[in-house]
Amino acid sequence: MSGRLFLLPAPLAAYSPEAWSPETLALHLPAKAIGLYASLDSFIVESERSALRLLSRFKDAQSLRSLKLRVLNEHSGESELPSLLEDLEQGMDCGFLSEAGMPCIADPGAALVAYAREKGVKIIPISGPSSILLGLVASGLDAQRFAFLGYLPQNGEERRAYIARMATAVLKDGMTRVCIETPYRNKALLKDLIALLPDSLWLCVASDLCGAEERVLSAPAAQWRRSGLPAIGKVPAIFLFGKRAGMRPPDSR
Amino acid sequence: MSGRLFLLPAPLAAYSPEAWSPETLALHLPAKAIGLYASLDSFIVESERSALRLLSRFKDAQSLRSLKLRVLNEHSGESELPSLLEDLEQGMDCGFLSEAGMPCIADPGAALVAYAREKGVKIIPISGPSSILLGLVASGLDAQRFAFLGYLPQNGEERRAYIARMATAVLKDGMTRVCIETPYRNKALLKDLIALLPDSLWLCVASDLCGAEERVLSAPAAQWRRSGLPAIGKVPAIFLFGKRAGMRPPDSR
Question: Residues of A with CB below 8 A from B125's CB?
């Protein structure tokens, strides 16, 4: 198996002709990623539509027509993994692209990487934007240690019980918690967080990161309760809660 | 307070004239970060030496001479924060740069951001390489949820007890654990991890990420025990352990 599997970042900002102009994309993506978009001929992608939109910014019509795209998404099964590696087996380099941000995190790419590792494929991760880290550094929350929780439970009651449990855990262990939500549930999640977090914790909501409407709101829970629910809309967002960062981080392992 | 505080990424690869040539740096850093290195005149930095080395790649001698640098590191106290914001108060934009990777994570930058937020400073996070995420995506470990633990306890006995506790926790909650170590303790940490992790968990060590000697080793703990300790050296590295990623992630909140 001599092809290499490149784990490529995708833009965070949602598609628009301006947000996805080659110049704007290059502002947020390193040259290595852009060079690989342009040069690779084989890709495993989470969304064919997003991948083609992105690659069309950097490839001519001829290369786009001869492109090999294979799909790996939440509907894929374990049994499909071997066929995804066919081009790699032929010695071709291959890129993996998720819908947004760094691949493999909270998507099925990690299973592909595990399988590819067992088959001896060389894996090369390429740096790029991550809403988890951009939200974290801009939040003012403690970032000595943090936990990414992925998607929270969809059921309202379960979600609220989970948030309450996590809030208690933060008070004890000091680890900032980071979670995501599908955009149409942003409002429900934010409402629950504002209602449930204890006064002493901070809540941060970062939306449209790297986009024209980028907004990072971060304040103590008590202040959120006073100012009420902001207009958040159905945009990609990330939610964080934890202790305000200090010069001497709390240690309670 | 009208200046903006830009949270800038720094290269991950350790300094060498080749690794830090402007062309190599641009491979791993987005154009936005490089544009800000070149255009900002005021910086808060974790290490004056690293910051000057980096900025000298993108600034002429004249701009370097008139540069305003203020230091924030692990020896800084809470009382120094107000003076760090002086240029921002004068309406100047300011960049924050840590020694490597994204700022604020496991460094005192987060306290600066918290303080700046309370003073109404506009905070703008700029994307860049992160060893946490590059290691995670390349590992093949479950990445639906993960926890960054920062530096582990320095004392050998405490460290081993902590690793054992974390290994038990991973088996239960399925969250991949990520930790760092100062390079001269890499070998001791790796030895402990290889000795202590249960057979079913995977261990991943990623070193010199984005550098010429980039290496990501990831395999079941049992396999590490059979193959023995690899030559790791005193290079920047990140360590991860957790369950092998599958298409259907384990859920045990």
Answer: 133-135, 137-138, 209, 216
- Residues present in chain A in total: 253
> CA A19, CA B231: separation in Å to the nearest integer?
45
Shortest CA distance from B244: residue in chain A: A114
Nearest to A140 among B35, B113, B124 (CB): B113
Chain B's closest residue to A137, CA to CA, is: B104
A248, closest residue in chain B (CA to CA)? B108
> CATH number of the domain at A131-242, out of 3.30.950.10, 1.10.10.10, 3.40.50.1000, 3.90.230.10?
3.30.950.10
Q: Which of B23, B127, B162 to mutate to test the interface with A (most CBs of A within 10 A)?
A: B127
| Beta strands per DSSP E along chain A | 4-8, 42-45, 68-71, 94-97, 122-125, 146-151, 176-180, 202-207, 215-220, 237-242
Q: What is the ipTM of this complex?
A: 0.96
Mean pLDDT of chain A: 94
Do the domains at A4-125 and A131-242 have one common CATH topology?
no
Judged by average pLDDT, the poorest of B42-46, B88-92, B156-160, B183-187 is B183-187
**Per-residue pLDDT for B37 more than 90?**
yes
